[in-house]
Write a structure and sequence with these properties.
Layout lengths: L2 H21 L7 E6 L12 H4 L17 H9 L41 H19 L1 H9 L1 E6 L2 H8 L12 H21 L4 E5 L8 H8 L13 H24 L4 E5 L1 H10 L8 E5 L25 E3 L7 H13 L7 E2 L3 H5 L8
Parallel strand pairs: 1-2, 2-3, 3-4, 5-6
Antiparallel strand pairs: 4-7
């Protein structure tokens, strides 16, 4: 690479940092990278998603726009640009400096039976390919500085459990006990966090799984079988208990990682408890209907998912659920506010808030 080109790229990197610091004074983040499922991607980053989606909902978020999702809202609070989709890149190194969204709607932790939805490990390989490109173009030292000043956001597990619960899916139901299944998923998540740490990523936001037992489709499926609901809230207790096993196990392992890995700053964000607070007291948070999907048809809006924005309700802010399994933008806004500052949903991110994580000074090793 010519010396002039290298200087331009390094200057671009520092401009990204200056932009962030002018939005949030003292911010130590210059790169924000996102991995996950439909909680981070509305289908833009999923090849052939309109053709190959399997959960009967073409639009997993409001207007099909990532700007309503939690990581996008957190990026605004950090003062960094929201990372563009991995597949939108044109090969320019400048497009990599502020981070990428590797997420894919319906992505799983376990390897998928369909190659159309990138699994956790497939997304991780894309991350390492990006790191290699940074090293080739900028040199190891500059690339290492960018990686160490980054924050990574991980949000997985929902679709693994959907495959477990819905017999029409991959058929994993019956192969594992609840604890065995949770342990397999958590082990893989921990391996990924270790892999990122070994690659000099020291700050990670790891999201738990939302209460799937309260989502419209799960409630509809169980209502049509033999399951009852959970204390009158319209939630399936059996499903939520399994989700809680996973979340609890994941948080315990994150606590251990923080103790074991020098200079690691990994936080667990408990969106399960956050959404359950809204389910238990919907009026306190401005919601009128905690059970029905805003965009869908049939009982609970759960027989057919969101195939067009024209199907959506008039006031999505009155609803907790957008479609079969995903929350509305109003819920995401409350989760992002609480993850950032600890309010109004107290202490959903532990051991520190996202804001505290962003202001943590990265430890640069020699």
């Amino acid at each position: 690479m010519k010396r002039e080109t290298l200087l331009v790229l390094i200057a671009s990197f520092f401009m990204v940092g200056m932009t962030a610091s002018t939005s949030v004074a003292g911010n130590n983040v210059t790169s924000f990278n996102v991995l996950g499922d439909s909680s981070v991607d509305c289908g833009e980053n999923t090849l052939f998603y309109p053709i190959l989606h399997h959960n009967l909902s073409l639009i997993p978020c409001y207007n099909g726009n990532d700007s309503t999702l939690v990581p996008h809202l957190l990026a605004k609070k950090m003062g960094v640009p929201y990372p563009p989709p991995f597949y939108s890149q044109n090969g320019s190194i400048n497009g990599l400096l502020s981070g990428l969204n590797y997420g894919s709607a319906q992505a799983t932790i376990m390897n998928p039976s369909s190659q159309s939805h990138q699994s956790l490990n497939q997304q991780l390989r894309q991350v390492f390919e990006t790191f290699q490109l940074l090293q080739l173009e900028l040199g190891e030292g500059s690339a290492k500085d960018i990686i160490e000043s980054s924050v990574f956001y991980l949000s997985f597990g929902k679709d693994d459990y959907l495959d477990l619960f819905l017999q029409s899916s991959s058929g994993v139901m019956g192969k594992y006990s609840g604890l065995e299944f949770a342990s397999i998923l958590v082990d893989q998540m921990v391996n990924v966090m270790r892999g990122l740490y070994d690659a000099n990523v020291h700050r990670i936001i790891c999201m738990g799984i939302l209460p799937l037992g309260c989502t419209p489709r799960i409630v509809w499926e169980w209502r049509n079988s033999t399951a009852g609901d959970d204390e009158g809230r319209g939630c399936v207790a059996e499903v939520n208990e399994l989700i809680l096993q996973y979340n609890t196990m994941l948080e315990e392992r994150i606590i251990n990682l923080n103790s074991e890995l020098p200079n690691a700053h990994i936080i667990f964000c408990d969106i399960y408890q956050g959404i359950m607070q809204m389910m238990n007291n919907p009026q306190d948070y401005g919601f009128e209907d905690p059970k029905t999907a805003c965009c869908g048809l049939g009982l609970y809006g759960a027989m057919i998912g969101c195939l067009s924005v024209e199907m959506a309700c008039e006031r999505d802010s009155d609803y907790i659920w957008w479609d079969l399994y995903n929350p509305t933008k109003a819920v995401n806004a409350l989760l992002a506010d609480s993850a950032w500052s600890g309010r109004p949903l107290f202490d959903i991110c532990r051991p520190i808030s996202v804001r505290a994580l962003v202001f943590t000074t990265p430890s640069y090793s020699d």
